[in-house]
């Protein structure tokens, strides 16, 4: 077991290249099940969630190769093998295997998903969608079993705007007979990315990226080539880190429009944010950071996945900031850890109230989930002294080479075995 150790206090400087989007990759990989020949996906991030999904595809007979960001999947000989083992529980996105296997085989048995512990993460809207398409659904021994004689297109209104349900229903509906209309659909860029892949496979989808998606079912889908969009949450993580450290960073190979909500908030705080076609420069070298309020919302609102890193930045802003998470009300596990480092934050209901600025000091802290991990890495970068972060496995689920990328920007960050010589002072 390893920890991340950071000696803080250096402003970040330089250029960082962003990887392919985790939250696209984890849907695109299951989507390859729908094709009856070879699919090649480029710009695949080298992260734990991707590795687990590859193992799951292999378990059902897929031939899979990941080489330098290029994933080749041959699903011509896969079978509807039940996936009810421990692996599916290691990530949330294993639930996309339900929609994809239902679409391809008209049946699926998939263990209940895992993922970050952000409070309740229901999947009732996914189930409602599958049932509307004609599937019988039962939950038994920790797994969901889906079965349909035929899948028939349907009009499905989502009671809550859900990225997961929108994608999962799309995966099953592309192979249903007739037309499916998903109303009150989520509009996240990852949904558009999945629709692009499915369309390249031969699916007929209109309206992805709006709140009404229309799908005309087809009989067969074929392999294709697809490149994953840049990770907007990784983009945002580096933008926030640049601002928090009062640095100047070019965040490269991104789609600036995907992080507009964050760019606006950073500008409101007094940070210079310059957008070009494929990069964003964040310059906080001359900034006096001002407090702002944040409310997480569905896209194009402020993303819940950046709420936790943002709380770290707001500890450095002058005044009181209120951060409200309307998507996951208890996504504040980073707060206790930030307090250990000197932050003045209290959580009331679904809001965190942050008073700043407070200098942070290094401490031993634990990453309890993926973005809490990112929040603590940023805290370590700006804190005085040494910060030691355990729970690195959460960070590895979703960030490719996080330490190497921060090191490239001048941060003093390294891995150390837990049994190693980690006194919280620098060994001379
Ligand atoms: C809208 C939103 O910001 N979604 C984020 C959410 O997606 P994720 O797919 O986890 O969540 P959803 O978008 O599906 O859910 C949004 C909201 O709807 C609720 N819900 C969802 C499905 C369901 O069947 N029933 C139900 O009540 C959820 O509890 C949540 O409060 O986390 C992902 C990983 O952190 C992010 O990449 C997504 O951008
Ligand atoms: C919470 C996240 O991941 P997951 O939904 O896969 O747990 C995330 O990407 O921020």
Report on this structure:
The chain has about 425 residues and is of the alpha+beta class. It folds into 2 domains: about 1-20 and about 230-415, Enolpyruvate transferase domain (UDP-n-acetylglucosamine1-carboxyvinyl-transferase, Chain), CATH 3.65.10.10; about 20-225, Enolpyruvate transferase domain (UDP-n-acetylglucosamine1-carboxyvinyl-transferase, Chain, Alpha-beta prism). It has 13 helices and 23 strands. It has helices at about 20-30, 50-60, 95-105, 125-130, 165-175, 190-200, 230-245, 260-270, 305-315, 335-340, 370-380, 390-400, 400-410; strands at about 1-5, 15, 40, 65, 70-75, 105-110, 135-140, 145, 155, 180-185, 205, 210-215, 225, 250, 270-275, 280-285, 295, 320-325, 345-350, 350-355, 365, 385-390, 410-415. It has a 4-stranded mixed beta sheet, covered by helices on one side. The longest helix is centred in the middle third of the chain and has 13 residues, at about 230-245. The relative contact order is 0.15. The model is unreliable at about 420-428 (pLDDT under 50). Phosphoenolpyruvate binds next to helix 1 and helix 11.
